[in-house]
């Protein structure tokens, strides 16, 4: 088929397959258990990404990661991510995210959402409409995945707010 040269890019984009929505019926949430308290020393000064400071050997305080990462232990869970839909937010496949169910989602938060009994991790978007009401939608942070705009028959439940990404670098 012959196509005008000005339309080639548009037609190629239209023919490109769109990834399937990444909603899942089954997720494996792990409850938080603070079994041990491990205090990790940290220096008094902040660290630049260049040459180390000679004062860095002096430790001022200790940090307990349980207290630092978990604000509401009874409502906090860990979930392993199995999609690339949030790649541009720094969330990759096999990263673990900490989810706090006690937090109320705000515009721009990353959330674990349930739509018609299917779970997904997306950015929570809340926009004011001209009638002083709010329109809520879920934004994928990867252009290859679709954003989710709710249809009138769909039910959205924000299951929890993502508070931390646990990412192994090595």
From TrEMBL:
Q: Which residues form the Peptidase S24/S26A/S26B/S26C domain?
A: 45-162
InterPro entries in UniProt: LexA-like, LexA/Signal_pep-like_sf, LexA_repressor, Peptidase_S24_LexA, Peptidase_S24_S26A/B/C
Q: Where is the signal peptide?
A: none
Question: Is Hydrolase included in the keywords of this UniProt record?
Answer: yes
Q: Which top-level group of life is the source organism from?
A: Bacteria
Q: Which SUPFAM superfamilies match?
A: LexA/Signal peptidase
- Alphabetic keyword roster: Autocatalytic cleavage, DNA damage, DNA repair, Hydrolase, SOS response
Q: Which family does it belong to?
A: Belongs to the peptidase S24 family.
What is this protein's name? LexA family protein
In its UniProt entry, the species of origin is given as Acinetobacter albensis
């Amino acid at each position: 088929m012959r196509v005008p040269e000005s339309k080639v890019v548009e037609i190629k984009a239209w023919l490109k397959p769109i990834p399937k929505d990444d909603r899942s019926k089954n997720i494996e949430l792990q409850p938080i258990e603070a079994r041990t308290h491990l205090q990790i020393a940290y220096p008094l000064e902040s660290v630049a990404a260049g040459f180390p400071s000679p004062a860095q050997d002096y430790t001022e305080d200790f940090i307990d990661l349980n207290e630092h990462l978990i604000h509401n232990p009874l409502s906090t869970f860990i979930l392993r991510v199995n999609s690339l839909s949030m790649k541009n937010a720094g969330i990759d496949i096999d990263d673990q995210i900490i989810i706090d169910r006690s937090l109320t989602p705000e515009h721009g938060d990353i959330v674990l959402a349930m739509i018609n009994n299917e779970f997904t991790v997306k950015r929570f978007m809340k926009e004011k409409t001209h009638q002083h009401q709010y329109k809520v939608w879920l934004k994928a942070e990867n252009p290859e995945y679709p954003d989710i705009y709710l249809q009138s028959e769909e039910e959205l439940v924000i299951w929890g707010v993502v508070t931390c990404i646990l990412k192994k670098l090595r």
